[in-house]
Structures are given as structure tokens and as C-alpha cells.
Design goal:
Blueprint: H1 2-20, E1 28-32, H2 38-46, E2 51-54, H3 57-70, E3 78-81, H4 90-96, E4 99-103, H5 106-118, E5 123-129, H6 145-152, E6 158-165, H7 177-191, E7 202-204, H8 211-216, E8 221-224, H9 226-229
Parallel strand pairs: 1-2, 1-8, 2-3, 3-4, 4-5, 5-6, 6-7
Helix pairs in contact: 4-5
The structure holds pyridoxal-5'-phosphate.
Pyridoxal-5'-phosphate binds near residues 32, 83, 223 and 224.
């Protein structure tokens, strides 16, 4: 049952917050609904989860169109793009997503800028950082983030809201801690850089396997799929 899974998750969030002296109000839960049905989306929304994450533009746009017509509370939903964004899908992504979490190059940011300017929208984004050395992972390397931020912050139709990372798949949640810590330290370092002048209030990190560790390390946004739908 989705509702009991969410209740359990809320308990785990509270526990991780208590352990690290944080407030659960600081944590936004994004329900990752890739490959999930419209009925399942409806159910999470009815449980009060209004942040929905998808990783493919095509699939997401279909669901968003449906939600617009069929889902009470549609207006309150914030849609998150959490997958790799191909340049030929940027226009649709900008038209449909409230937060694009997977920006990892200037080229992609410039495409977003162009698409957003055409509809006079300021697009919220996160920079996706590759905190692990796994070659398959997308994301910009930590040492390059500062330069990338400098370039992107010149763009008028983009607002950088923070950083996102995907920890590598590990056996024990605890093994993911160093990657989360690295993202938090990177944010601290960058937010104190006066030349940059970006706030980076969002730290999107932590999934089903490791979200409580991510919260202990400062996550302000967690992205959960299986914990909600297979919990
Ligand atoms: C699928 C996905 C998630 C959710 O993963 P679960 O392990 O099902 O919680 C989170 N973030 C990204 C980027 C994903 O692709």
C-alpha cells in the first residue's frame, strides 16, 4: 500500500532528522514515478506528495497532460526532471518541468536558456555533480562546478537552485555517506564564494537505498521510487 509506505518513510525521515538535529520541514520528498501508472501517481498525490520526478521527457509529458485534465490538485504539483536531458528534448522539458535537476554542461544550460527565453520563463535548475568515479554516471566533476556556475549564472532565463547527485550503488547505505558529504562540502565551499553569488539552497541526494544517510549529511531533497511503490 502506497499510503502506508509513505507513512513509514515519513517516520524514517523524522528519525534521520532527529539523529542529525534537523527539522523534517527542511526535507522535500520527491516521488519518482518513472515506469509507474497514472493510478499510482494519483495515489501519491492523494497522500499529500506534490513533488513528482520523472526521468524521460516523453513519458513525463504524457503524464503531465493527463494530470492537467484528470487530477485534482494538478496546480499544486511540481514536476522534476531527474534523468539525463538530451538537447533535442530541451524545449519540451522547459515547457513542462518546474525543476530540471540534471544540468551538467554549459551547452545544455544554453539550450535551456534559449527555450526558456522563447516562452519568457525563468527555469529553475540543479547542477548534477558526479561525486563518484563510476564512468557510466552523468554529471559534472566536482572541480569543474565552480566554473560552470560562473558561466550559467550569467544566463538570464535560468535560476540555479542547488546541486544534485546520484550516489553509486553500494551494498550498505553507510557506504554512500562519503558521496553525500562531498556534495554538502562542495555546496559550503561554493556558497561562501562571494564572486559566485549563488545560494544553492537545494541539495538533492538520497534514494530508496540510502536516503536516511543523505538526510544526515544535509540533503534538502530526496528522490524515492521503490520505497514508495514497492515498500
Ligand atoms: C529512479 C531514480 C530515483 C529513484 O530510485 P529508487 O531507488 O527507486 O528510490 C532517484 N533518482 C534518480 C535520478 C532516478 O533515476
Amino acid at each position: 500500500m502506497i499510503s502506508s509506505a509513505i507513512e513509514r518513510i515519513r517516520g524514517q525521515i523524522l528519525q534521520a532528522c532527529n539523529k542529525s538535529g534537523r527539522s523534517p520541514d527542511e526535507i522535500t520528498l520527491v516521488a519518482v514515478t518513472k515506469n509507474r501508472s497514472l493510478a499510482e501517481i494519483k495515489e501519491v498525490v492523494s497522500c499529500g506528495i506534490y513533488n513528482i520526478g520523472e526521468n524521460r521527457v516523453q513519458e513525463a509529458v504524457k503524464k503531465i497532460c493527463w494530470a492537467k485534465e484528470q487530477l485534482p490538485g494538478f496546480r499544486n504539483i511540481r514536476w522534476h526532471m531527474i534523468g539525463h536531458l538530451q538537447t533535442n528534448k530541451v524545449k519540451e522539458a522547459v515547457e513542462n518541468f518546474d525543476l530540471i535537476q540534471s544540468v551538467d554542461s554549459l551547452k545544455l544550460a544554453e539550450r535551456i536558456e534559449l527555450a526558456a527565453s522563447k516562452i519568457n520563463k525563468v527555469q529553475d535548475i540543479l547542477i548534477q555533480v558526479r561525486t563518484s568515479l563510476e564512468p557510466t554516471k552523468t554529471g559534472v566533476q566536482p572541480y569543474m562546478v565552480s566554473d560552470l556556475l560562473k558561466e550559467i549564472s550569467r544566463l538570464k532565463y535560468i535560476r540555479i537552485r542547488g546541486l544534485m547527485t546520484i550516489a553509486p550503488l553500494v551494498k550498505q547505505a553507510e557506504e554512500a555517506r562519503p558521496y553525500f558529504r562531498e556534495l554538502r562540502m562542495l555546496r559550503e565551499e561554493l556558497s561562501t564564494d562571494k564572486d559566485l553569488g549563488v545560494r544553492l539552497e537545494i541539495l538533492s541526494m538520497g534514494m530508496t537505498n540510502d536516503f536516511w544517510v543523505a538526510i544526515e549529511e544535509g540533503a534538502t531533497m530526496i528522490r524515492l521510487g521503490r520505497a514508495i511503490f514497492e515498500g
